[in-house]
C-alpha cells in the first residue's frame, strides 16, 4: 500500500526537503511547551499515589486536585478543572459560559460566527437550555478581511452592551479563515481590559501547544478545550478542561456539578493516570500533528492545489485545509486517509447528510478514540470549493504515509 509511484515519491521527497526549516521551528516550540509541561509535573509533585481510583462522591480525591493544579500551571491559569466527565469540547465550553453568565448579561463574540456545535448553546439556533433560553443576550463582531479583530466595532460593542464575557475562537475550525495567534489574543485581552470589565474567554480547541504560550499567559481570563483534540495528547478517551482566573473557575465548578458541592465531588473512577499521561503527551503529539499538517500543505501545494494555511505560514491551530476542487477528488482523499488508518481501515467513508449542515459531509476517522481529531482525520462538506479539512497525526511518519497515499489516490482520480 505504501509503494508510491515515481511522481508522488519525488514530490514527497521534495516536500520533506522544503519543510526542514519549518520543522525546526515546530521543534523549537515543542522544546518550550514540553519543557513547561515537564516542569509543571515536577513543581506540582505528581506522584504515583495520585493515580488511585475514587468512587461514589469522590471526596478528597488528591489525584483530581493535583490534576487541576497541574492543568492550571500548564495553561497559565490560577486554577483549572480537567475532567473525563465533560462529555466533549462543546459541553466544556457550555459549562464555562453557563457558569459565568447570568440572566440579563451579554456575551460578545469577537471572532465572527462561532463553531457550529456552539450555535444551539449560544441560542443562535433556538434550543431548549441555550444561553438565550436563560435570558443571556448575544452580540457578535466579525473579523476583518485581514483576519484580525475589528477594534472599532469591538469598542462600540463594549460601550453599547457592557458584556460580561468577550469570547473568541482561536482555531479556524471548519472555515477558510486563519487561526487567531497568541499575539493577537494578547492585544485583544489588553484592549478589552482597558475598555471594559469583561472577562476574555478563549475557545482553545485545536490551538493548544501550537505556540509557545497559551491564551491565559497573555491576558485571557479563561480558556476551554477538548481532550480528544490537542489537549489530550491522543491518550484521553474523552473529557475537557477549563483553566483561568480562580473566581471564574469556581463559577464553572458549581455549574459542572452543583451549587454548594462544586469541585468537591466527582469520582475519578480510575481515570487520573490517563489524564496525567494525556497532559504529559499533549505537547509532543501536537508537534507531530503540526508536522503532519505542514507536510500535507507542502505536498499538495507542490502538486498544484491551493492550501490554507500555506506551508511556511505561522500556525496557531493544527487544522489544514486543502482545496481539492472536485467532488470525486474529495471522496478519493477521505477514503484514502481512512484506508491508511491504523483502525477501521477496512471501511470506506461515503458522503451523507449530517444534522445542522446544509450539504452532505464525508469524514475519515480511523482512530483509537471515536471521533478523535488529534488522530489523523479528515472532514469535508460536498460543496464548492471542495475543500477538505485535515487534522491530527499521533505520529508524523504514519501521517506522512497516509497523506502521501491520499495524494496518489487523488492524482489517480480524474475528476
Ligand atoms: C472541536 C471544536 C469545538 C467543540 O468540541 P467538541 O469536542 O467537538 O464538542 C469547539 N470549538 C472548536 C474551534 C473546535 O474545533
Strand count, sense and closure of the main sheet? Answer: 7 strands, mixed
Structural class: alpha/beta
Number of helices: 11
Parts with pLDDT < 50 across at least 5 consecutive residues: none
What compounds are bound to the protein? pyridoxal-5'-phosphate
Strand and helix order? HHHEHEHEHEHEEEHHEEHEEEH
Q: Radius of gyration, rounded? A: 21 Å
Mean pLDDT: 96
Tell me, briefly, the overall form: globular
Euclidean distance between termini CA atoms: 22 Å
Strand portion: 5-15%
Q: Strands of the largest sheet, in order across it?
A: 1-7-6-5-4-2-3
Strand tally is 12
Helix content: 25-40%
Describe this protein's structure.
With 415 residues, this protein is of the alpha/beta class. The chain contains eleven helices and twelve strands. It has helices spanning 6-18, 20-43, 62-75, 89-100, 119-122, 151-161, 182-195, 246-256, 272-302, 327-339, 396-412; strands at residues 79-83, 106-109, 137-140, 165-169, 199-203, 222-226, 240-244, 306-308, 320-323, 361-365, 377-381, 387-391. Strands 1-7-6-5-4-2-3 form a seven-stranded mixed beta sheet, sandwiched between helices. The longest helix is centred in the C-terminal third of the chain and has 31 residues, at 272-302. The structure holds pyridoxal-5'-phosphate.
Amino acid at each position: 500500500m505504501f509503494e508510491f509511484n515515481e511522481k508522488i515519491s519525488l514530490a514527497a521527497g521534495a516536500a520533506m526537503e522544503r519543510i526542514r526549516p519549518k520543522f525546526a521551528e515546530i521543534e523549537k516550540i515543542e522544546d518550550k511547551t514540553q519543557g513547561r509541561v515537564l516542569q509543571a509535573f515536577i513543581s506540582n509533585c505528581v506522584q504515583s499515589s495520585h493515580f488511585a481510583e475514587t468512587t461514589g462522591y469522590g471526596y478528597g480525591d488528591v489525584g483530581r486536585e493535583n490534576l487541576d493544579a497541574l492543568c492550571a500551571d500548564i495553561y497559565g491559569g490560577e486554577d483549572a478543572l480537567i475532567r473525563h466527565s465533560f462529555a466533549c469540547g462543546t459541553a466544556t465550553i457550555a459549562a464555562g459560559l453557563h457558569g459565568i453568565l447570568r440572566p440579563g448579561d451579554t456575551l460578545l463574540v469577537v471572532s465572527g460566527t462561532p463553531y457550529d456545535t456552539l450555535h444551539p448553546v449560544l441560542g443562535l439556533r433556538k434550543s431548549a437550555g441555550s444561553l438565550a433560553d436563560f435570558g443571556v443576550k448575544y452580540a457578535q463582531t466579525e473579523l476583518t478581511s485581514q483576519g484580525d479583530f475589528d477594534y472599532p466595532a469591538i469598542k462600540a460593542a463594549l460601550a453599547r452592551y457592557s458584556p460580561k464575557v468577550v469570547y473568541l475562537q482561536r482555531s479556524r475550525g471548519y472555515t477558510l479563515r486563519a487561526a487567531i495567534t497568541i499575539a493577537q489574543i494578547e492585544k485583544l485581552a489588553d484592549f478589552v481590559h482597558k475598555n471594559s470589565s469583561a472577562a476574555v474567554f478563549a475557545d482553545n480547541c485545536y490551538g493548544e501547544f501550537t505556540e509557545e504560550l497559551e491564551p491565559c499567559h497573555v491576558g485571557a481570563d479563561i480558556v476551554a478545550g477538548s481532550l480528544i483534540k490537542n489537549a489530550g495528547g491522543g491518550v484521553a478517551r474523552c473529557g475537557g478542561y477549563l483553566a483561568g482566573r480562580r473566581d471564574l473557575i469556581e463559577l464553572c465548578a458549581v455549574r459542572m456539578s452543583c451549587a454548594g458541592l462544586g469541585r468537591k465531588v466527582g469520582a475519578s473512577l480510575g481515570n487520573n493516570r490517563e489524564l496525567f499521561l494525556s497532559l504529559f503527551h499533549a505537547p509532543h503529539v501536537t508537534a507531530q500533528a503540526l508536522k503532519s499538517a505542514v507536510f500535507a500543505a507542502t505536498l499538495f501545494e507542490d502538486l498544484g492545489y491551493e492550501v490554507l494555511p500555506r506551508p511556511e505560514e505561522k500556525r496557531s491551530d493544527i487544522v489544514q485545509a486543502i482545496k481539492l476542487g472536485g467532488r470525486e477528488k474529495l471522496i478519493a482523499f477521505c477514503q484514502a486517509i481512512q484506508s491508511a488508518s491504523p483502525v477501521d481501515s477496512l471501511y470506506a467513508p461515503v458522503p451523507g447528510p449530517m444534522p445542522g449542515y446544509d450539504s452532505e459531509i464525508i469524514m475519515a476517522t480511523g482512530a483509537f478514540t471515536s471521533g478523535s481529531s488529534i488522530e489523523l482525520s479528515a472532514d469535508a462538506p460536498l460543496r464548492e470549493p471542495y475543500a477538505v479539512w485535515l487534522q491530527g497525526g499521533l505520529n508524523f511518519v504514519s501521517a506522512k504515509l497516509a497523506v502521501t497515499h491520499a495524494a496518489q489516490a487523488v492524482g489517480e482520480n480524474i475528476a
